[in-house]
Design a protein that fits this description.
globular
């Protein structure tokens, strides 16, 4: 049985809960978006853009990147 595209997508909340339950790490939606972008998953454009020219955007740590990647695999969003 094949998954539909809607069934293969997990919400940010589901990903956060999975990472917390398995790794006891708190991850932000920013970090999840960074990893999704890195894996080639298309993201919708956000409308709450900063007006600052120089933004200080924190980067995801390798430990949290591994946890988020594991969650994306668990939800079959990546292989």
């Amino acid at each position: 049985m094949d998954l539909t595209s809607a069934e293969s997508k997990a919400t940010y909340t589901q990903i956060k809960e999975y990472v917390w339950n398995k790794f006891q790490l708190k991850v932000s939606t920013l970090y999840i978006a960074q990893i999704k972008r890195k894996c080639g998953i298309e993201l919708r454009e956000h409308y709450n853009k900063s007006k600052k020219e120089k933004q200080n955007i924190p980067q995801c740590t390798p430990e949290k990147e591994e946890a988020i990647t594991d969650a994306l695999r668990h939800f079959k969003m990546i292989e």
